[in-house]
What we know:
Number of strands: 9
Distance between the termini: 29 Å
Number of helices: 1
Strand content: over 45%
Largest sheet: 5 strands, antiparallel
Shape: elongated
Strand order of the largest sheet: 1-2-5-6-9
Order of helices and strands: EEEHEEEEEE
Helix content: under 10%
Amino acid sequence: GLEYNYFERIKSSLQATYVAESLGSAAVSDFAEAAEPIPNYTVWDWSAEAFVAQNYVSIFFGINNLFDSRYFSRSRGGIDPAPERNYYGGIKIAY
């Protein structure tokens, strides 16, 4: 990942997660059988935070799965799709 910090007032972060192709089940007995493979994938997340009151109050915002990648996170009787792009934000107050 990369992080940019502007004078401890504004922070921004871009992170990537890469997962190689794997079998859909972690059970040892399933490896001998035809376990459904989960293809490799990369997911990018971005976040930002701005301090608005002398490091006591900040606002933050982020996007998970920035490029809305279609991937699978696990397999249990079929592969389950992972979460689509989602957003979050809020206010932090430190005392």
